[in-house]
């Protein structure tokens, strides 16, 4: 059977991977899931450790912000190139090298005795994550070519993508409170050792056949363009009218526009335009941007609310975030069974609305009871995210030729990274404006001004999520039988 085509003008591409899935595919899923968890939680686990690391290493506030920015910058800028390297060089090889490099960078950061070394390590983490993340998702895509097992595999992957950030907050709280900030980075080393040892034995190599020439102009344009956009949004936290903010955003947009023009004319494009111009995948990518923005922004300010307003320790704050993750995991099992029956369109339309309802409920916080004001909202948010994440990865890679699995997987991660950068910048600006209209933080009513700012952020995140609902309804129109075909019968191309 031929699945959803890559676009109206997509040329047929010879399948380079056997259609029959390997016998040890569930062990492959475990290794890929472990790698995904490492990449996702590393975006939040360090946030908990930052105050302690800053004090110990004598870092300025500016240097502290770069600990977060450098990871996002290198990761986001190199994702598409990393995905193409995985396609051409080999997905197993790229996975193992990416995992090993990520572990080495984590060890350097965990043992850092100065702020400069820590910053270098975070940049290196982003570089290797840009190779690891698309390779892992591409391996999953070619290991589970179709059918109900593919739905289950991507449900696990999507659950980790949705809940990994909250797990990072919990793990960061435990390690910071009972050990030290160093372990928030060093914890990646034993995880990587296990993933590499098992992955070396069970992963099968796969790569694109035919021409494997790299699109050097495209790689330079998209890397510099994405880096400029991500950095521009990171600077927007200090003010949207700043010259550097507007300048980097403008340069990024121009470079990405030039990238599209180059790809349209290239005989060996880094990102074949059929991948992003397909209506269904475009809907999935736009939804991914909206969800990435809302999720990362909401989690950041929910954590601040726990620690500053409710006075929770880092550990208790991490525990307080778990209900959302639990709701995602429980709901994911239900959604996995529903997907072959109702298809992704209804689920991805309802999911943003359910999650947005949770955020709107969260916006009614007063600084009072966690059980009454926060817990029900987290459960709704988790349920809505499960409705989105379980089908999202599936839809984004549906019908992708095996030749393009790596770069298409990178495009999924890139949309989430860009969404997170946009969300953090926009929500920070909204929070700052809302909190500034209240009473000063140090005064008797200072906490209320913070609560007002957090409420505005949650409303804005709800709006961003709600926008994903019509996008999914009008664009993500996939037949249900795409998710019920047996693995052996599927042929992508």
Automatic annotation (TrEMBL):
Residues 28-480 form the Major facilitator superfamily (MFS) profile domain. The keyword Aminoacyl-tRNA synthetase does not apply. PROSITE patterns: MFS, SUGAR_TRANSPORT_1. InterPro entries: EmrB-like (IPR004638), MFS (IPR011701), MFS_dom (IPR020846), MFS_trans_sf (IPR036259), Sugar_transporter_CS (IPR005829). It is a multi-pass membrane protein. Keywords: Cell membrane, Membrane, Transmembrane, Transmembrane helix, Transport. Gene3D superfamilies: MFS general substrate transporter like domains, Multidrug resistance protein D. Its main location: membrane. It is found in: Cell membrane. The keyword tRNA processing does not apply. The chain crosses the membrane at residues 26-46, 66-83, 95-113, 119-142, 154-174, 180-202, 214-233, 245-262, 283-308, 320-339, 346-365, 377-400, 407-434, 454-476. NCBIfam families: efflux_EmrB. This is MFS transporter. It comes from Arthrobacter burdickii.
């Amino acid at each position: 059977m031929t699945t959803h085509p890559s676009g109206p003008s997509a040329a047929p591409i010879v399948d380079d991977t056997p259609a029959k899935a390997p016998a040890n595919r569930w062990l492959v899923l475990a290794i890929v899931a472990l790698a995904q968890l490492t990449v996702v939680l590393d975006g939040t686990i360090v946030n908990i450790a930052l105050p302690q690391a800053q004090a110990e290493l004598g870092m300025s506030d500016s240097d502290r912000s770069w600990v977060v920015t450098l990871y996002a910058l290198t990761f986001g800028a190199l994702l598409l190139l990393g995905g193409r390297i995985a396609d051409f060089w080999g997905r197993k090889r790229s996975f193992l090298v990416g995992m090993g490099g990520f572990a080495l960078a984590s060890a350097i950061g965990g043992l850092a005795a100065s702020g400069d070394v820590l910053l270098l390590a975070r940049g290196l983490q982003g570089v290797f994550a840009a190779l690891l993340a698309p390779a892992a998702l591409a391996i999953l895509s070619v290991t589970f070519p179709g059918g109900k097992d593919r739905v289950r595999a991507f449900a696990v992957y999507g659950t980790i993508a949705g809940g990994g950030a909250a797990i990072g907050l919990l793990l960061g709280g435990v390690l910071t409170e009972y050990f030290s900030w160093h372990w928030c980075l060093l914890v990646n080393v034993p995880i990587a050792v296990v993933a590499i040892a098992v992955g070396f034995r069970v992963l099968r190599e796969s790569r694109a056949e035919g021409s494997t020439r790299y699109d050097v102009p495209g790689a330079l344009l998209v890397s510099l363009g994405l880096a400029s956009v991500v950095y521009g949004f990171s600077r927007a936290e200090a003010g949207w009218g700043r010259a550097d903010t507007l300048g980097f955003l403008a340069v990024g947009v121009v470079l990405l526009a030039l990238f599209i023009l180059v790809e349209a004319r290239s005989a060996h494009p880094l990102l074949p335009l059929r991948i992003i111009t397909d209506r269904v995948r475009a809907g999935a990518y736009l939804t991914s941007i909206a969800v990435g923005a809302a999720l990362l922004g909401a989690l950041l300010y929910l954590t601040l609310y726990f620690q500053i307003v409710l006075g929770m320790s880092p550990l208790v704050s991490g525990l307080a975030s778990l209900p959302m993750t639990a709701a995602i995991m429980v709901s994911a099992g239900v959604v996995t069974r529903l997907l072959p029956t109702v298809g992704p369109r209804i689920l991805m339309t309802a999911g943003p609305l359910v999650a947005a309802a949770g955020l709107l409920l969260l916006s009614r916080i007063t600084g009072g009871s966690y059980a009454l004001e926060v817990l029900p909202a987290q459960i709704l948010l988790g349920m809505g995210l499960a409705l989105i994440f379980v089908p999202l990865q599936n839809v984004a890679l549906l019908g992708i030729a095996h030749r393009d699995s790596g770069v298409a997987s990178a495009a999924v991660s890139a949309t989430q990274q860009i969404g997170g950068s946009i969300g953090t910048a926009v929500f920070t600006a909204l929070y700052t404006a809302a909190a500034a209209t209240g009473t000063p933080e140090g005064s008797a009513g200072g906490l209320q001004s913070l609560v007002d700012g957090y409420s505005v952020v949650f409303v804005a995140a709800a709006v961003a999520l709600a926008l994903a609902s019509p996008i999914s309804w009008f664009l993500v129109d996939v037949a249900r039988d795409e998710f019920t075909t047996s693995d052996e019968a599927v042929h992508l191309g």
